[in-house]
Amino acid sequence: MPRGIPNAKRDESAMRFTTFHVPLQPNPKHVGSTYLKSENQTLWSRNAARAGKNKAVADETATPTASEGRRGSKVLVIHAGSRWLRIGRASDVTPVTVPNVIARKHNPPVPERNFVPSILRPHEDRKRGHPAFVSQTGDEYAISLASDDPFDERVSAITVSLRDRMRFYKLRVTANAANIASTFNESFKPEIIPEVNDPFRIDWIDTSEKAFYVGEEALHLSNPEKLGYVVRWPIYGRTFNAKNYPTHQSILEDIETILRTVLQDKLGIDPRTYKEYSVVLVIPDFYDRFYVRDLVRMLLITMGFKQLCAQQESLAATYGAGMSNACVVDMGACKTSICCVDDGLVIGESRMYLSMGGDDITEFLYVMLEKINFPYRDINLARAYDWNVLEDLKARLCTLAEGDVGLNLYDFVVRRPGQPTEKYGLRAYDEIILAPMSLFEPRVIEFENKRAGKGPMPSIDVTEDIVEQTSDYLTQAMMISTQHLLPTALPRPVLIQHLEGPIPFPPSGPQTPGVNTPAQPGPSVPQDSEMANANNTPEGSENPPKDDKASEDKPADVSVGAAEGESTMEQEGTTATNDTTGEQAKPNGTAVTGDGTADAPMEIVDGDDGEAKHSTTATPVVVAPQVAPTIIFQPSPIPAPIYPGGFPIDVFFEASKLPLDVAIFNSARASGGDEKIRKYLQAVLVIGGTALTPGMAHALESRLQAIATPLVPSMEKVQIIPPPKDVDPRVLAWKGAAVLGKMDSVADLWISPEDWDIFGMRALKERCFFL
């Protein structure tokens, strides 16, 4: 070793300076590998190739005499609703329709049937024979309220809307019609019909031999409580009926029992042959992931079907109607769902869910008929046969055509177990149109009662396969509908006296986030033009530019779009009051609740006396000019976000209270701009049992036209598309799913039990467009 170079000392301690593990360099072979980088290497492709080989072997070994069935004969289409279960083969013309109800043996004591009212009731002393309002002399269309009952006040508001439409169509009003109908109904005596003359008599079940009864048999039990049965409906709206069931597993057991019984008795399918059938499951548009997961697991794993495909109701309805673009309105028994379909794909942000349907019309009709002395005095809505009486009356009496309103005579038949059949007569006037008008004027519906006792069902086996997303709880259309209820999330300026010396005050004042400058980080209300309510300014319309001096003189609006929307509605002659929540908007844009208090007013502290003064202006006011104040922005005290999406209100629940016409417009608005709105409002497809109401198409067209004409530029005529000829709108979604089940393209959507066992909910996510 050369001189001058010291010996290098080796570190014998072998201590590492860090615990971080430095990985080795990647193998170049792995970088250039094609493993799982092509479609043919996925498990889906391997299963399809394996199925193709098995089919080829089966075709070679099959005997020539083997006959193949009709196309779709091995595909079952299941559409489970709140009131009806529609199930059948894809090759069938119409499905088998049975009530989705089960009566199961229960250990004593059997809980009594209770009816939770969803319609506001009048006072006890005004249920019968007390007219709520009288017509004014000189103007047959004007009415004056003669009662202080909240029910009468809300009904009178619906009546005023009806009289305005009758005035527009120049239809006469029958004077004193309520008293005439009440007098006739009160004195009517029923006619007894002998059993031999009743062709529609019911064979009531008086024995308790079976462990359960399904469908019509469950409704034909003479007295379920005395026989030891409890009658339940396992599905309510878009998910499971959590109100009437003690556990989540009992709901699934009842659904499985109903399906097995209907398949065996109505379709003749033995449980041993389930592995030969594929299933097309029709699910709601605004679905619950737990609902979909549990049904798919039950059909594939528990019942053992061959494969399954899930499809949404709106898309299935467009298949059945032969349309590619439509705004589908599905009006069922307990819910009304609205969704826009664009070229075979459901627009997720346009989905709306309304907590009202045909059952609310039935109950409201009963309340209105009781006001005019309904002749059937012993009616009880908790009994199935009494509910069927009102369902029959609703189907035959209710209408939305103003020309059908008249003081007419109707009849109905009551069949009760152990008693002879009775035939009643009934006179009614505008009750037959006020009941279905509750869809457009939902003032009388008690939405809180619908939500009472209905919570999320606990599930102990929730895994990472189910990822909670914001779209599972609310959509853009729902946020548009409830923007006027959201508090303004703006900072509150607090002026504090500066003691060290004067500081130059900004000449233009602090700028409010979200108005003149970009919004600051933190919780804020979406400010997009598509987030406006139907009562606000339409897209594309902006206020004219103002100079700086005018902006300083006039207080700045703290809610974007509020003042513009109010001025627009004043020009159109309408009001921006929210009838369902009792809230209204002040001219300065601050939201005012029912008790008259403003949301998050600005608080300005004077430098001399320290007294707080409330003001709605965004520009701070300096009280003591000799000393400049220091500006400190503090966030407004907004309630903690306890609802999905981080909002301080339940957006999903508040949006479910909207009138039907406003909800349809907001759904179309959430799908895009003005062109999209015109596109979908000219192709509104109405399906469901409530769509059979006479005059429904014209009622929707006229109301949607009145909303869309002032808000959408170049808006042409709104058009309601009827279902195809000779097709029941109640089964249109099922027929569309049956069409899908017979198509060759459905081969890419099937999920096998093996796929579900490996992937779980990921299988649906990769095989469906909507998850």
Walk me through this protein's architecture:
Helix 18 (660-670) packs across helix 19. The protein is an alpha+beta fold. The model is unreliable at 63-67, 458-465 and 489-634 (pLDDT under 50). Among the domains are: 75-114 and 200-320 and 732-767, Nucleotidyltransferase, domain 5, CATH 3.30.420; 124-178 and 358-451, Alpha-Beta Complex (Actin, Chain A, domain 4); 487-504 and 529-543 and 559-564 and 585-647, no CATH class. The chain is built from 23 helices and 27 strands. The strands form nine sheets. Strands 14, 15, 16, 17, 26 and 27 form a six-stranded mixed β-sheet that branches. Pfam families: Actin. Residues 526-540, 568-583 have a biased composition (Polar residues). Belongs to the actin family. It comes from Cerrena zonata.
What's a quick, concise take on this entry?
The protein is of the alpha+beta class.
Shape: globular
Distance between the termini: 73 Å
Spans of at least 5 consecutive residues whose pLDDT stays below 50 are: 63-67, 458-465, 489-634
Top-tier CATH class of the domain at 75-114 and 200-320 and 732-767: Alpha Beta
Q: Which structural class is indicated by helix and strand composition?
A: alpha+beta
What is the level-2 CATH architecture name of the domain at 75-114 and 200-320 and 732-767?
Answer: 2-Layer Sandwich
- The CATH topology of the domain at 75-114 and 200-320 and 732-767 turns out to be Nucleotidyltransferase, domain 5
Number of helices: 23
Give the CATH superfamily of the domain at 75-114 and 200-320 and 732-767: ATPase, nucleotide binding domain
Helical fraction equals 25-40%
Biased composition (Polar residues): 526-540, 568-583
Pfam family, one: Actin
InterPro entries: Actin, ATPase_NBD
Biased composition (Basic and acidic residues): 544-556
